[in-house]
Sequence to fold (139 residues):
Amino acid sequence: MAKSAIIFLFLPFSLMILHSCNKDSDQNLADPLIGTWVFNDYDPELNQYYFSASDTFNPEKQGYTFQENNKAIIRMNAGFCGTPPIVYDNYPGNWHYENDSSLFIESTFWGTQDIEGPFIYIKMEIAYLDGDELIVTIE
Fold:
């Protein structure tokens, strides 16, 4: 009787532990957008921008870092000149999802760093996202 009572009490507890360690649990899934994305290419016919996941920014390309706390780092031109060689810099910003496939980003830029408020507003529609590639349209 004592053994069956122990088994009866132990079984639900062990099932609960096994379920909580399940890698497919929604609580344990990371957002694939979180991380650093470096610009690769632009397709003008589709109006799509292609980014690759990276550990760091490429000093010669634009990009984005999306952090879990809805903070962002936007890597873009460091001045008004868009003629190569382009100098890039990192600017702080914020981001949030508007829906499952739409992002909104706000940031400062080279001409507004000493003025309060965001001055760049970017709306992105995610066409494709996995751990290695991000494809977006920018409105």
Summary: The chain has one helix and eight strands. The chain has one domain: 31-138. The helical segments are 2-20.
